Amino acid sequence: MSDVQVAHTRMVTHDNGVTGVYVQVAQPVSDLSAALFAHDSIDVAWRVGLTFKPSDNPLVWLAGAELDSSLPPLLEIGNFIESTDTFLGPLTPGPVRFVHVRPAGGKGIWIEGPAAQTELAQVEAARAQRFMQAMVAPGSAQGAPDFAIFAVADGLLITQPQRVPGISLTPFEAGLGDDVMKVLNRIIRGRGIPKMLDPQAWRKQMQANRPAVLIECRVRAENEEIATSFSREKIKRLLDMLTLRRGAAATLVAGVIVAHSGQGKQKLHGVWVEHGGYTENLLGGLLAGEDVHALQKTWTGMQANPQAQLWVSLYADAVRDPRWDYQFFRCFSLLEAIADEVVPAGFPIVDEAGNPRPLGNSNKNYSTKEARGKVYALLLRLDGAAANDSLWDSVGLWAQVRNDVAHDGEWQAPSPNESSLHAATRAAIISAGHDGTFESGTRPFVNRIRDYVKRTLYAAIFGSL
Question: Is 220 exposed, middle or buried (0-12, 13-18, 19+ CB in 10 A)?
């Protein structure tokens, strides 16, 4: 963002610890400010704002700063503007780079010129190598091909690139929502309304409401399917983490995967639209829930119950999550939260014969103090039953998934050190599938708990919980 032409810069650290920064401009200016950026193998980042004062020479300006000794030794002066306010933003390098290297001992004139430029080239090369290296998908052989994934996410505002090894995020104007504008204009035109949406105003509003990022991801994998699924999972985890740092939850929209096809050329291997595959109710009409009378009744009940509104919102968040283990974890946690509100605390759990259920290898028995007990008691309440041994076994499997995901962060693949409970739960999930695979079993396994969540929510809405 420099708008001042600079001829030369110099940095000198004096014995009192103050570093003088001297700038010679190409032509006189009324004010001058700039910033110091620190280079290392991870990033080039803003560190110190500089507001200069004029010297006796109208082309020479002076500033001083006490630099932290922990700063990297390579600094760059940049973003020169004719102002007294420093620009707190990313470095925008011009055709000439003003870089300086801390002198030996930390005092005296900082190294500049060719030696500093060589240091800059080495640091930038190390930085590029660090972030351009491909992530390796599990099970990839030594000579597995490299793939590049280019994706778009919205709902995340960043002003400069954010990177981790293998993935980079860059802000850009994506033009998202142009299709919606065209649809809305068609609706407006169809209603006979003369004034249409202005494309320029629409794009400005969409850019403000849906700031977009370009995501580049490099993956080494056996094939494009593995590369796509692996990179999508890594990208979503990075977006989750950025929610902590930026306060906004980004949404992955779509992406493409490309690979080298020889002679320096790249070939498009595939494209995906996130959440693009509709997998829920394919039926229509009354039997599929398209009942306006029932909808009005449900809507009225929910409007009168703020707690039910919260629970329905949490369930919708769970359904939106494409990861089966996260979706399952959210559903179980929701049942547990509802049970905390409606199930008596410390109530003993018994089997169909009326006997207490032992709590593991301890001398205690299950009650509604434990997560399994309280969720089981909640579902019994829905069924109007005193006990159900089959349901108890099912909730045990659910609690195991919940515990394993909470402990490990995700459902873990088979391993030599896995617990017998984890292995038994995996076998139960496999048995729920149609083809004997774990993947096919996850959907009916998740659907079972979702069915109970829906029943619980309807009961809450209608006041029968």
Answer: buried
Structural contact between residues 385 and 397, judged by C-beta atoms closer than 8 angstroms = no
- Total of domains in the chain: 3
Token pair 């997998």: residue: 279
DSSP state, residue 99: E
DSSP 369-422: TSHHHHHHHHHHHHHT-S--HHHHHHHHHHHHHHHHHHHHSSPPPP-TT--HHH
- Classified as helix, coil or strand, 158 is coil
344: helix, strand or coil: coil
SS3 category, 415: coil
pLDDT tens digits, one per residue of 88-108: 788 888 889 999 999 998 999
Q: Which of these three, 86, 111, 130, is where a domain ends?
A: 130
Structure tokens at 102: 């801390």
CA 361, chain centre distance (Å): 41
What is the predicted pLDDT for the residue at 161?
Answer: 84
- Give 170-216 pLDDT, tens digit per residue: 888 877 888 889 999 999 999 999 899 998 898 888 888 888 899 99
Alpha-carbon gap, residue 227 to 223, rounded angstroms = 6
Q: What would the two tokens of residue 316 be?
A: 């919708």
Give the integer Cα–Cα distance in Å for 293 and 291. 6
Q: What is the pLDDT of residue 282?
A: 47
Strand pairing category for 167-172 and 212-220: antiparallel
Domain range holding 56? 6-130
- Model-level pTM greater than 0.85? no
Which segments of the chain have a pLDDT < 70?
Answer: 1-2, 261-264, 275-292
Residues 156 and 253 in one domain: yes
Rg of the Cα trace of the chain? 30
Of 11, 78, 79, 84, give the one whose Cα is nearest residue 54.
84
User: Is the domain of 213 the same as that of 324?
Assistant: no
